[in-house]
Amino acid sequence: MPLPRLLALLLLWTSQCLAEQAVLRFSVAESWSMPLVRIEADQPVEGLLYDLTQALASEVGARPVYHVMARLRLQEAMEHGDIDVRCYVSSQWFDAPPRNFIWSVPLINQRDLLVGRPGDSTAISAEQLPPQAIGTVLGFTYPGLQPLLDQGRLQREDSRNQLLVLQKLQAGRYRHAVSNQLSLQWFNRGLPDGQRLQALTVLDEQQLGCMVRNDPALPTQALLRALARMKQSGQIERIVQRYGGQGHQAVMPVARP
């Protein structure tokens, strides 16, 4: 068979396979930054959650499609059936979770930390902070800080993602900020000891998982089983470790009032 004809047939076969392959629509929050995800041209290209969703789609033989949107639009998109899988989410973040989604097993342990500037290594609870603005991410909820925010003792200074929060803390825009532990470890990587931002205490600790749309058109149960296998086999933990999560359990106890 002539080479041009062979190449044309191969291209046709590849196009047909892609057309027939099931599509999984994953949500990506604009507020995510590395190590969770890096976004280029409105699409994720690397990161912990990119690797996790790519592996999940591969497990069920589907093609992943990503919808990048503001965090505050995520629940609306779920309710309208615009996304099939939402990952890195906690039941504590919902007043009323969408009823047509099913939770996976817990996949990742997240700790929200109170973070200080370089050299500020004295352990302190949020209740001990003097009145001040504190660096936070727009649209994120912080149960460990909410009573102090409600009392007006602390005021949120929101940025659109976690990286900007830490950069502003490093630049001295405020004295303290909140960060998840993985993002803080990623930010501090390669910095000399004297320039690293400091974890002062754990504000909150949550088990995060994925939510899968319960729809006959989707392999919902196959997705949930695949996530359980990925967790049990250690694949999830290996992905976390790939992005600097080694030893991410060992910091300090959760702060309590």
Q: Can you tell me about this structure?
A:
It is a single chain. This protein has 257 residues and is of the alpha+beta class. The chain has two domains: 22-109 and 206-242, Periplasmic binding protein-like II (D-Maltodextrin-Binding Protein, domain 2); 110-205, Periplasmic binding protein-like II (D-Maltodextrin-Binding Protein, domain 2). The protein contains eight helices and eleven strands. Strands 5, 6, 7, 10 and 11 form a five-stranded antiparallel sheet that branches. It has a two-stranded parallel ribbon with strand order 1-4. Strand 2 and strand 3 form a beta hairpin. The longest helix is centred in the N-terminal third of the chain and has 18 residues, at 3-20. It is globular and about 65 Å long.
How would you sum up this structure in a few lines?
It is built from eight helices and eleven strands. By secondary structure, it is an alpha+beta fold.
Percent helix range? 25-40%
- CATH architecture assignment name of the largest domain: 3-Layer(aba) Sandwich
CATH class of the largest domain: Alpha Beta
How large a portion of the residues is in β-strands, by DSSP E? 25-35%
Shape: globular
CATH homologous superfamily classification of the largest domain: Periplasmic binding protein-like II
Unreliable residue runs: 14-19, 247-257
> What do we call the CATH topology of the largest domain?
D-Maltodextrin-Binding Protein, domain 2
Secondary-structure content class:
alpha+beta
Q: H/E series, N to C?
A: HEEEHEHEEEEHEHEHEHH
Mean of all residue-level pLDDT scores: 87
Alpha-carbon distance between the termini? Answer: 76 Å
